[in-house]
Amino acid sequence: MTKYIKYLTNDLFIGATLIGFLLGGHWLWLGFVFAIVGAVGGDFLFGEHGEAPKYGYPQILNLIMYSYFPVIVGTALVFVWTMTPGDLFGIGSTVAALTGYDAVAAKAGSETIDFFGAALGLGLMFAIINTIMAHELIHRTWDPVAMFFGRWFFAMSGGIPFEVEHVYGHHHTLGQPNDASLSLRGDSYWTFYSSAPFKQITYAWGVEKKRLAKHGHSVFWIGNKMIRSTLRVGAVWTIVFVLGGWLAVGMYTIAFWMSKMMYEAIGYMFHHGQVCAAGEPDGDRHSWNCNRLMSQVVLFNVSKHSEHHRHPNRPFHELSKVKPGEAPLLKTGCVTNAFVAYFPPLFRRVTGPQILKWDEEFATEREKQIAAEQNAASGIPVYMATGKTAHA
User: Fold this and answer.
1) d(C-alpha 162, C-alpha 337), whole Å
2) Residue 74: which residues within 8 A CB-CB, separation 6 or more?
3) Phi first, then psi: what are they for 57, rounded to 5°?
């Protein structure tokens, strides 16, 4: 049963976030701090997971995924409650009745900096809950229930282009010049983040324009998935405003931003440094993977990224443990690397040697030429030091 229950791990992070919201004041930072320390610490403490088990009851895993939706909705409502002057939905009185703690009085002492911490914490929850669940569900294009929940998971976290760009773009253009998620070796995470979201929106809009034109519709037709995604996000924003006013909307927008920052850091980390010759098909060698247990359960096996790209419609629980030599393996956990990406010098120190090792072990001759060109153009010492290779 443990093999099923482990995928409820993210409830621990949500629980800490909720407790912080209810305690008020500086405790509003609890979820943000606990998520970082817990996820990164777990990558190091729990080591690697075993071989992928067989699941006789995959419907249990589906229920676990769907169970996160009411939980994250409830978390968002409590977040808004922390910024309202009264006792929205009687949340404070319920807490007082159950525990004796005066949550309403406690939240009255919260300051703007505390609300900012709450927004960062909610943003991380959106990243590890909404984005991860939606990523899995949006790939199930044949299942209307999965698509419904996937779309609303994204609506809550501000994800507009993903349904189109990721499924019909990134999975077809990986490593190519028109890949909206492409990052060159000289690109820091912040360089990547400053352009990738806009490229994704532009690419997704183009995909929808072509799709609708085939059916004789204008790109501005209501059937445009980008327009529908925008309307869903707008609906969420409206609900937040009606319940909590401008302060709640502002802080919720910061949560959007934090979620997007984390999602893009994960995407950046999964493919950074690997090169693919223009016009050539991508392969297992064009994605980073990891076998860390914490990354596995937090990211619902997205850490098996090569197999995910090879079989994008394969359910997360069927993805296998990556064996050394069959696909690029990170020395650290995926969650850890995503946080490290925020600090470019540290990220290059950690991943640079691994990228140079990728050149030796996985790159084709054409890819080695491209890698050498990117190394020379990067201006980064670890890549420009030709002749120096990395060792495990």
Assistant:
1) 22
2) 18
3) -130, 70
Tell me the domain boundaries of the chain.
2-192+227-384
Work out the burial of residue 206: count CB atoms within 10 Å of its CB; fewer than 13 is exposed, 13-18 middle, 19 or more buried.
middle
Reported confidence tier of residue 177, pLDDT bands at 50, 70, 90: confident
Exposed e or buried b for every residue in 171-205, given b needs 16+ CB within 10 A?
bebbbeeebbbbbebebbbeebbeebbebbbebbb
- Report d(CA 342, CA 233) in Å as an integer: 26
Main-chain phi, psi angles of 362, to 5 degrees: -125, -30
Of 29-43, 61-75, 162-176, 238-252, the poorest mean pLDDT is in 162-176
Please, what sign has the CA dihedral across residues 242, 244, 249, 252?
A: negative
Do residues 38 and 336 touch, judged by C-beta distance below 8 A? no
The tens digit of pLDDT for each residue in 305-336 reads 999 999 999 999 999 999 999 999 998 899 99
How is residue 195 written in tokens?
Answer: 């352009």
- Whether residue 334 contacts residue 270, with contact meaning beta carbons closer than 8 Å, is answered with yes
- In 272-333, alpha helices (H): 293-298, 305-310
- Report the alpha-carbon distance of residue 104 to residue 92 in Å, rounded: 5
Taking the CA atoms of residue 266, residue 267, residue 271 and residue 275 in that order, the dihedral angle to the nearest 10 degrees is: -150
> For 9-51, how does the pLDDT look when each residue is reduced to its tens digit (9 = 90+)?
999 999 999 999 999 999 999 999 999 999 999 999 999 999 9
Contacts of 269 (CB under 8 A, 6+ apart): 288, 334, 337, 338, 341
Model confidence at 286: pLDDT above 90: yes
Query: What gap in Å lies between CA 58 and CA 47, rounded to an integer?
Result: 25
How buried is 237 (Cβ within 10 angstroms: 0-12 exposed, 13-18 middle, 19+ buried)? middle
